[in-house]
Amino acid sequence: MNLNFSPEHQAFRAEVRDFLNTQLPLDIRERTLRGEKLSKDDHIRWQRVLAARGWLAHGWSKAYGGTGWGPIERFIWDEEVHLAGAPRRNIPAIDLLGPLIIEYGTEEQKQRFLPPILASEHWWCQGFSEPQAGSDLAALKMRAVREGDHYWVNGTKLWTSYAQESNWIFCLVRTSQEEKKQAGISYLLIPMDQPGVTVSPIITVGGVHAVNQVTIENVRVPLENRLGPEGAAWSMTQFLLSHERIVGAGIGASTRYIEEARAFGRRTRRNGVLLSEQPRFRERLASLEAELMALKYTAYRVLADEVAGKAEAAVVSVVKLRGGQLQQAITELMMEEGGQLSWPDVLTLPEGDPVVPPEDAYHAQQAFDRRKLTIYGGSAEIQRNIIAKRILRV
User: Fold this and answer.
1) Do 95 and 244 meet the contact criterion of CB atoms below 8 Å apart?
2) Confidence band of 244 (pLDDT split at 50, 70, 90)
3) Three-state SS string across the chain, please?
4) What CA–CA distance (Å, rounded) separates 361 from 264?
5) Single pTM value for the model
6) pLDDT tens-digit profile of 160-171?
7) Is 143 left (phi over 0), alpha (psi -120 to 50) or beta?
8) What does each C-alpha distance from 46 to 148, 246, 282, 355 come to in angstroms?
9) Which residues are catalytic?
């Protein structure tokens, strides 16, 4: 197994770096690296730069406006955008729903839904988790009752990321109570700007408004908005989650956090001595760097298997689980070592002479916000169950 990048992939990495250095707007880069929340307009501005280059939809085929990149190119891109301070794209639309529509949608659905995503006109959120169901998708209760040429939908979704900025939601709904519970679930594509759809904010422990509760009451959804056959969503979701968990590995994000931790140690003193010269900080940072290197090479092996067409889907759970834990450990290191420096809110720092360097003021917020990484996209407990059953055979 060759885990080295080919000359072609090294040239691709250089091309990506040059593009990010010259095309990523400086104000967006600086605010992203400072941990500031960007507006939807900021994200759209960046997405349109990517769309103009043809680099917005990485997992899509060229026939539908995607890049046609393979898994290695997508992995290289993920590393470089995090290091450069580029903001995330509309992940639910581009990395999850888009590939799902291309794989399972009708041609009419592809022509109807894919171009508005590429134009940043449709902003999507993902309606999976529910109260009392958590990561157990088979336990979801949102009902869709068929009546003629449409469904009537009722229920509640929870932890729905960026629903407050979305005009569409793709939902898992229960269309049958009569069969095995995994067999009675379907996909519906639902516009958010209609009576009966209510978005209620949930402020996380990190003080961020990123997730929401979405209530849907007596909403009429036409049959042509169902994606795939009725009752077939379970197998379709396994296809989708394999994409989400690869994204969740966060190799690029962890690499950037390690660089930030190094810089933090070089500028921060405790008892008159730089952190970078103190054994406790050096030991913790070195341990995390070693763990990142191990995760990176594990991800490389997964990529090599995927390219060779022999990827084991359950292995993705290992990468997703360790990736989330590692980001949590690195951000906790900076929060704990920073002490009081970590606690001011970067959005409320006084202008002119801030009480702490802006680059240090978000460490606590980041550490708390990273708690979500081992919950969404299949919780850590779900990943451990998959690893135990499918890899360890216990």
Assistant:
1) yes
2) low
3) CCCCCCHHHHHHHHHHHHHHHHHCCHHHHHHHHCCCCCCHHHHHHHHHHHHHHCCCCCCCCHHHCCCCCCHHHHHHHHHHHHHHCCCCCCHHHHHHHHHHHHHHCCHHHHHHHHHHHHCCCCCEEEECCCCCCCCCHHHCCCEEEEECCEEEEEEEECCCCCHHHCCEEEEEEECCCCCCHHHCEEEEEEECCCCCEEEEEEECCCCCEEEEEEEEEEEEEEHHHEECCCCCHHHHHHHHHHHHHHHCCCHHHHHHHHHHHHHHHHHCEECCEEHHHCHHHHHHHHHHHHHHHHHHHHHHHHHHHHHCCCCCCCHHHHHHHHHHHHHHHHHHHHHHHHHHHHCCCHHHCCCCCCCCCHHHCCHHHHHHHHHHHHCCCCCHHHHHHHHHHHHCCC
4) 11
5) 0.84
6) 999 999 999 999
7) beta
8) 42, 23, 37, 31
9) 244
Q: In whole angstroms, what is the distance from residue 152 CA to residue 168 CA?
A: 17
Task: Tell me the pLDDT tens digit for each residue of 283-338.
Answer: 999 999 999 999 988 888 888 887 777 767 778 888 889 999 999 999 999 989 88
What whole-number percentage of the chain has pLDDT above 70?
Answer: 92
Is 70 exceeded by the pLDDT of residue 252?
yes
Report which of 134, 133, 377 is spatially closest to residue 243, judged by C-alpha positions.
Answer: 377
